[in-house]
Amino acid sequence: MMTNIIDGKSIAAKLRSRIANEVESLKQQGIHPGLAVILVGDDPASQVYVRSKGKQTKEAGMNSFEYRLADNTPQEALLELISKLNQDNSVNGILVQLPLPRHIDEEAIINAIAPQKDVDGFHPINIGLLSTGGKATIPCTPLGCLMMLKDQLGDLSGLKAVVLGRSNIVGKPMASLLIKENCTVTIAHSKTTCIEDECRQADILIAAVGKPELVKENWIKPGATIIDVGINRIKDTENNSKLVGDVDFINVSKKSGAITPVPGGVGPMTIACLLLNTLTITLRQNNLSIPKWIINQE
Ligand SMILES: Nc1nc(=O)c2c([nH]1)NC[C@@H]1CN(c3ccc(C(=O)N[C@@H](CCC(=O)O)C(=O)O)cc3)C=[N+]21
Protein backbone atom coordinates (compact mmCIF):
# COMPACT_ATOMS: atom_id res chain seq x y z
CA MET A 1 0.00 0.00 0.00
CA MET A 2 1.23 3.49 -0.82
CA THR A 3 0.92 5.66 2.24
CA ASN A 4 0.29 9.37 2.21
CA ILE A 5 2.84 11.41 4.14
CA ILE A 6 0.95 14.17 5.92
CA ASP A 7 3.12 17.26 5.44
CA GLY A 8 2.73 19.09 8.76
CA LYS A 9 5.39 21.57 7.77
CA SER A 10 3.49 22.76 4.73
CA ILE A 11 0.04 22.73 6.42
CA ALA A 12 1.61 24.79 9.23
CA ALA A 13 3.10 27.27 6.74
CA LYS A 14 -0.32 27.79 5.11
CA LEU A 15 -1.93 28.26 8.51
CA ARG A 16 0.70 30.82 9.54
CA SER A 17 0.09 32.87 6.42
CA ARG A 18 -3.68 32.99 7.10
CA ILE A 19 -2.90 34.04 10.68
CA ALA A 20 -0.54 36.77 9.44
CA ASN A 21 -3.28 38.18 7.17
CA GLU A 22 -5.73 38.30 10.04
CA VAL A 23 -3.16 39.94 12.33
CA GLU A 24 -2.51 42.55 9.65
CA SER A 25 -6.18 43.54 9.54
CA LEU A 26 -6.37 43.59 13.37
CA LYS A 27 -3.45 45.99 13.47
CA GLN A 28 -5.34 48.31 11.12
CA GLN A 29 -8.02 48.41 13.83
CA GLY A 30 -5.34 49.31 16.39
CA ILE A 31 -5.13 45.84 17.95
CA HIS A 32 -1.66 44.28 18.14
CA PRO A 33 -1.72 40.67 19.44
CA GLY A 34 1.03 39.89 21.95
CA LEU A 35 2.34 36.56 23.27
CA ALA A 36 4.48 36.24 26.41
CA VAL A 37 6.62 33.10 26.72
CA ILE A 38 8.33 32.24 30.00
CA LEU A 39 11.19 29.77 30.13
CA VAL A 40 12.64 28.77 33.49
CA GLY A 41 16.06 27.08 33.43
CA ASP A 42 18.27 26.15 30.50
CA ASP A 43 17.02 22.84 29.11
CA PRO A 44 18.54 22.82 25.57
CA ALA A 45 15.43 21.37 23.84
CA SER A 46 13.18 23.95 25.51
CA GLN A 47 15.51 26.73 24.39
CA VAL A 48 15.21 25.57 20.78
CA TYR A 49 11.39 25.54 20.93
CA VAL A 50 11.20 28.91 22.65
CA ARG A 51 13.49 30.51 20.06
CA SER A 52 11.42 29.03 17.26
CA LYS A 53 8.16 30.24 18.88
CA GLY A 54 9.52 33.78 19.26
CA LYS A 55 10.69 33.93 15.65
CA GLN A 56 7.40 32.66 14.23
CA THR A 57 5.37 34.95 16.49
CA LYS A 58 7.17 37.98 15.06
CA GLU A 59 6.89 36.64 11.49
CA ALA A 60 3.11 36.50 11.99
CA GLY A 61 3.19 40.20 12.89
CA MET A 62 2.54 39.69 16.61
CA ASN A 63 4.48 41.05 19.56
CA SER A 64 6.68 38.46 21.26
CA PHE A 65 7.71 38.99 24.88
CA GLU A 66 10.30 36.50 26.11
CA TYR A 67 11.21 35.93 29.75
CA ARG A 68 14.19 33.68 30.46
CA LEU A 69 14.51 33.00 34.16
CA ALA A 70 17.30 31.19 36.03
CA ASP A 71 16.83 27.56 37.00
CA ASN A 72 16.73 28.50 40.71
CA THR A 73 14.02 31.17 40.32
CA PRO A 74 11.70 30.92 43.34
CA GLN A 75 8.08 29.93 42.68
CA GLU A 76 6.97 33.24 44.25
CA ALA A 77 8.91 35.24 41.64
CA LEU A 78 7.33 33.26 38.80
CA LEU A 79 3.86 33.81 40.30
CA GLU A 80 4.58 37.55 40.53
CA LEU A 81 5.61 37.71 36.88
CA ILE A 82 2.43 35.87 35.84
CA SER A 83 0.32 38.23 37.90
CA LYS A 84 1.99 41.23 36.22
CA LEU A 85 1.39 39.73 32.75
CA ASN A 86 -2.24 38.92 33.64
CA GLN A 87 -2.76 42.66 34.17
CA ASP A 88 -0.73 43.85 31.18
CA ASN A 89 -3.04 44.86 28.33
CA SER A 90 -0.33 44.46 25.69
CA VAL A 91 -0.13 40.75 26.54
CA ASN A 92 -2.98 38.64 25.12
CA GLY A 93 -1.47 35.20 25.66
CA ILE A 94 0.81 33.73 28.33
CA LEU A 95 2.77 30.48 27.92
CA VAL A 96 4.95 28.96 30.61
CA GLN A 97 7.21 26.37 28.99
CA LEU A 98 6.89 22.94 30.63
CA PRO A 99 8.41 21.01 32.30
CA LEU A 100 9.37 23.39 35.12
CA PRO A 101 12.27 22.80 37.55
CA ARG A 102 11.36 20.37 40.33
CA HIS A 103 11.07 22.98 43.11
CA ILE A 104 8.18 24.66 41.28
CA ASP A 105 4.61 23.36 41.56
CA GLU A 106 3.40 23.14 37.95
CA GLU A 107 -0.26 23.00 38.92
CA ALA A 108 0.01 26.21 40.99
CA ILE A 109 1.65 27.99 38.05
CA ILE A 110 -0.95 26.87 35.49
CA ASN A 111 -3.76 27.85 37.87
CA ALA A 112 -2.25 31.34 38.25
CA ILE A 113 -2.56 32.17 34.53
CA ALA A 114 -5.77 34.10 33.75
CA PRO A 115 -7.94 31.54 31.88
CA GLN A 116 -8.65 34.04 29.06
CA LYS A 117 -4.87 34.48 28.54
CA ASP A 118 -4.07 30.75 28.84
CA VAL A 119 -2.87 30.24 25.27
CA ASP A 120 -1.90 26.59 25.94
CA GLY A 121 -5.39 25.66 27.16
CA PHE A 122 -3.91 23.95 30.24
CA HIS A 123 -5.92 25.84 32.88
CA PRO A 124 -8.66 23.70 34.52
CA ILE A 125 -11.29 26.20 33.28
CA ASN A 126 -10.27 25.61 29.67
CA ILE A 127 -10.04 21.86 30.15
CA GLY A 128 -13.53 21.90 31.66
CA LEU A 129 -14.87 24.04 28.80
CA LEU A 130 -13.37 21.65 26.25
CA SER A 131 -15.05 18.68 27.98
CA THR A 132 -18.43 20.40 28.08
CA GLY A 133 -18.19 21.76 24.52
CA GLY A 134 -17.84 25.42 25.55
CA LYS A 135 -15.58 28.25 24.32
CA ALA A 136 -12.31 26.67 25.40
CA THR A 137 -8.77 27.38 24.34
CA ILE A 138 -7.74 24.03 22.87
CA PRO A 139 -4.22 22.78 23.67
CA CYS A 140 -1.94 23.43 20.66
CA THR A 141 -0.70 19.89 20.00
CA PRO A 142 -4.14 18.18 19.93
CA LEU A 143 -5.55 21.07 17.86
CA GLY A 144 -2.73 20.66 15.33
CA CYS A 145 -3.35 16.89 15.20
CA LEU A 146 -7.06 17.46 14.56
CA MET A 147 -6.34 19.91 11.73
CA MET A 148 -4.09 17.38 10.01
CA LEU A 149 -6.72 14.65 10.44
CA LYS A 150 -9.44 16.83 8.92
CA ASP A 151 -7.11 17.88 6.12
CA GLN A 152 -6.52 14.21 5.33
CA LEU A 153 -9.91 12.62 6.03
CA GLY A 154 -12.55 15.37 5.98
CA ASP A 155 -15.45 14.29 8.20
CA LEU A 156 -14.33 12.03 11.06
CA SER A 157 -17.83 10.89 12.12
CA GLY A 158 -18.10 7.25 13.09
CA LEU A 159 -14.40 6.51 12.78
CA LYS A 160 -12.71 4.48 15.50
CA ALA A 161 -9.89 6.46 17.12
CA VAL A 162 -7.31 5.10 19.54
CA VAL A 163 -5.26 7.57 21.57
CA LEU A 164 -2.06 6.13 23.05
CA GLY A 165 -1.24 8.14 26.18
CA ARG A 166 -3.35 9.87 28.80
CA SER A 167 -1.47 13.08 29.59
CA ASN A 168 -3.30 16.29 30.47
CA ILE A 169 -1.59 18.14 27.62
CA VAL A 170 -2.07 15.67 24.75
CA GLY A 171 -3.93 12.39 25.38
CA LYS A 172 -6.93 13.63 27.36
CA PRO A 173 -7.67 16.79 25.34
CA MET A 174 -7.13 14.82 22.10
CA ALA A 175 -9.77 12.33 23.21
CA SER A 176 -12.20 15.18 24.05
CA LEU A 177 -11.71 16.71 20.61
CA LEU A 178 -12.22 13.39 18.81
CA ILE A 179 -15.41 12.73 20.77
CA LYS A 180 -16.62 16.15 19.62
CA GLU A 181 -15.87 15.03 16.04
CA ASN A 182 -18.13 12.00 16.55
CA CYS A 183 -15.35 9.42 16.66
CA THR A 184 -15.56 6.32 18.83
CA VAL A 185 -12.61 6.89 21.14
CA THR A 186 -10.40 4.56 23.17
CA ILE A 187 -7.59 5.82 25.37
CA ALA A 188 -4.87 3.19 25.81
CA HIS A 189 -1.88 3.54 28.14
CA SER A 190 0.87 1.69 29.97
CA LYS A 191 -1.59 -0.41 31.98
CA THR A 192 -3.79 -1.40 29.00
CA THR A 193 -3.76 -5.20 28.87
CA CYS A 194 -3.20 -5.65 25.14
CA ILE A 195 -2.28 -2.35 23.57
CA GLU A 196 -1.62 -3.91 20.14
CA ASP A 197 -5.15 -5.32 19.96
CA GLU A 198 -6.60 -1.88 20.70
CA CYS A 199 -4.41 -0.26 18.03
CA ARG A 200 -5.40 -2.81 15.39
CA GLN A 201 -9.02 -1.59 15.66
CA ALA A 202 -8.08 2.01 14.94
CA ASP A 203 -9.02 3.94 11.80
CA ILE A 204 -7.16 6.82 13.48
CA LEU A 205 -4.20 6.20 15.77
CA ILE A 206 -2.65 9.00 17.82
CA ALA A 207 0.67 7.99 19.42
CA ALA A 208 1.62 10.23 22.35
CA VAL A 209 3.54 8.15 24.86
CA GLY A 210 7.16 9.32 24.45
CA LYS A 211 8.55 5.84 23.70
CA PRO A 212 10.81 5.79 20.62
CA GLU A 213 9.34 3.72 17.75
CA LEU A 214 6.99 1.79 20.04
CA VAL A 215 4.20 1.35 17.47
CA LYS A 216 5.03 -1.47 15.05
CA GLU A 217 3.71 -2.45 11.63
CA ASN A 218 1.71 -5.39 13.00
CA TRP A 219 -0.18 -3.06 15.38
CA ILE A 220 -1.78 -1.21 12.46
CA LYS A 221 -5.08 -1.68 10.66
CA PRO A 222 -4.30 -1.50 6.91
CA GLY A 223 -5.10 1.97 5.57
CA ALA A 224 -5.26 3.63 9.01
CA THR A 225 -4.31 7.29 9.55
CA ILE A 226 -1.40 7.60 11.98
CA ILE A 227 -0.54 10.78 13.90
CA ASP A 228 2.84 10.59 15.63
CA VAL A 229 3.15 13.06 18.52
CA GLY A 230 6.41 11.61 19.88
CA ILE A 231 9.63 13.63 19.74
CA ASN A 232 12.42 11.37 20.98
CA ARG A 233 16.10 12.10 20.54
CA ILE A 234 18.01 8.82 20.15
CA LYS A 235 21.45 7.67 18.96
CA ASP A 236 21.55 5.91 15.60
CA THR A 237 23.91 3.02 14.74
CA GLU A 238 26.76 5.48 14.04
CA ASN A 239 26.16 7.13 17.43
CA ASN A 240 24.73 10.27 15.82
CA SER A 241 21.77 11.87 17.54
CA LYS A 242 18.49 11.84 15.59
CA LEU A 243 14.80 12.56 16.19
CA VAL A 244 12.27 9.75 16.02
CA GLY A 245 8.60 9.56 16.91
CA ASP A 246 6.61 6.99 18.89
CA VAL A 247 5.97 5.11 15.63
CA ASP A 248 8.33 2.85 13.68
CA PHE A 249 7.85 5.08 10.65
CA ILE A 250 9.69 3.06 7.97
CA ASN A 251 7.70 -0.10 8.58
CA VAL A 252 4.36 1.34 9.71
CA SER A 253 4.22 3.56 6.61
CA LYS A 254 4.13 0.41 4.45
CA LYS A 255 0.72 -0.41 5.88
CA SER A 256 -0.89 2.89 6.87
CA GLY A 257 -3.11 5.00 4.63
CA ALA A 258 -1.54 8.24 5.87
CA ILE A 259 1.08 9.11 8.47
CA THR A 260 2.79 12.18 9.94
CA PRO A 261 6.61 12.22 9.89
CA VAL A 262 8.94 13.22 12.74
CA PRO A 263 10.31 15.83 12.33
CA GLY A 264 8.00 17.81 10.06
CA GLY A 265 4.62 16.59 11.31
CA VAL A 266 3.01 17.45 14.63
CA GLY A 267 5.88 19.74 15.83
CA PRO A 268 5.44 22.54 13.27
CA MET A 269 1.64 22.32 13.66
CA THR A 270 1.97 22.76 17.44
CA ILE A 271 3.75 26.09 16.97
CA ALA A 272 1.35 27.24 14.25
CA CYS A 273 -1.57 26.44 16.59
CA LEU A 274 0.09 28.45 19.34
CA LEU A 275 -0.07 31.46 17.01
CA LEU A 276 -3.64 30.53 16.07
CA ASN A 277 -4.63 30.38 19.75
CA THR A 278 -2.97 33.76 20.34
CA LEU A 279 -5.08 35.19 17.52
CA THR A 280 -8.27 33.54 18.78
CA ILE A 281 -7.90 34.75 22.36
CA THR A 282 -7.04 38.25 21.15
CA LEU A 283 -10.27 38.30 19.11
CA ARG A 284 -12.26 37.05 22.11
CA GLN A 285 -10.69 39.56 24.48
CA ASN A 286 -11.77 42.31 22.08
CA ASN A 287 -15.29 40.88 21.60
CA LEU A 288 -14.63 40.34 17.90
CA SER A 289 -16.07 37.40 15.98
CA ILE A 290 -13.92 34.38 15.13
CA PRO A 291 -13.46 33.88 11.35
CA LYS A 292 -15.05 30.70 9.95
CA TRP A 293 -11.76 29.13 8.84
CA ILE A 294 -10.65 28.79 12.48
CA ILE A 295 -12.03 25.36 13.31
CA ASN A 296 -13.44 24.27 16.66
CA GLN A 297 -13.36 27.75 18.22
CA GLU A 298 -16.88 28.93 17.49
N1 LIG B 1 3.71 25.20 27.88
C1 LIG B 1 4.17 24.43 26.90
N2 LIG B 1 3.52 24.40 25.71
C2 LIG B 1 4.00 23.63 24.69
O1 LIG B 1 3.40 23.58 23.58
C3 LIG B 1 5.20 22.87 24.89
C4 LIG B 1 5.82 22.95 26.15
N3 LIG B 1 5.29 23.72 27.12
N4 LIG B 1 6.93 22.24 26.40
C5 LIG B 1 7.58 21.44 25.40
C6 LIG B 1 6.60 20.93 24.37
C7 LIG B 1 7.23 20.45 23.10
N5 LIG B 1 6.79 21.35 22.06
C8 LIG B 1 7.24 21.31 20.74
C9 LIG B 1 6.93 22.27 19.80
C10 LIG B 1 7.45 22.23 18.52
C11 LIG B 1 8.30 21.23 18.13
C12 LIG B 1 8.87 21.21 16.76
O2 LIG B 1 8.68 22.13 15.99
N6 LIG B 1 9.61 20.15 16.37
C13 LIG B 1 10.25 20.00 15.09
C14 LIG B 1 11.68 19.51 15.26
C15 LIG B 1 12.50 20.37 16.16
C16 LIG B 1 13.88 19.75 16.47
O3 LIG B 1 14.63 19.48 15.53
O4 LIG B 1 14.16 19.55 17.69
C17 LIG B 1 9.52 18.98 14.25
O5 LIG B 1 8.87 18.08 14.82
O6 LIG B 1 9.60 19.05 13.02
C18 LIG B 1 8.60 20.25 19.05
C19 LIG B 1 8.06 20.28 20.32
C20 LIG B 1 5.95 22.27 22.61
N7 LIG B 1 5.76 22.06 23.92
UniProtKB/TrEMBL annotation:
GO terms for cellular component: cytosol. Its EC number is 1.5.1.5, 3.5.4.9. Pfam families: THF_DHG_CYH, THF_DHG_CYH_C. Catalyzes the oxidation of 5,10-methylenetetrahydrofolate to 5,10-methenyltetrahydrofolate and then the hydrolysis of 5,10-methenyltetrahydrofolate to 10-formyltetrahydrofolate. This is Bifunctional protein FolD. NADP(+) binds at G165, R166, S167, I231. One of its GO terms (molecular function) is methenyltetrahydrofolate cyclohydrolase activity. CDD domains: NAD_bind_m-THF_DH_Cyclohyd. It comes from the Bacteria. It catalyses: (6R)-5,10-methenyltetrahydrofolate + H2O = (6R)-10-formyltetrahydrofolate + H(+); (6R)-5,10-methylene-5,6,7,8-tetrahydrofolate + NADP(+) = (6R)-5,10-methenyltetrahydrofolate + NADPH. HAMAP family: THF_DHG_CYH. Residues 139-284 form the Tetrahydrofolate dehydrogenase/cyclohydrolase NAD(P)-binding domain. It comes from Amphritea opalescens. GO terms for biological process: L-histidine biosynthetic process; methionine biosynthetic process; purine nucleotide biosynthetic process; tetrahydrofolate interconversion. Residues 6-120 form the Tetrahydrofolate dehydrogenase/cyclohydrolase catalytic domain. Homodimer. Transmembrane segments: none annotated. Keywords: Amino-acid biosynthesis, Histidine biosynthesis, Hydrolase, Methionine biosynthesis, Multifunctional enzyme, NADP, One-carbon metabolism, Oxidoreductase, Purine biosynthesis.
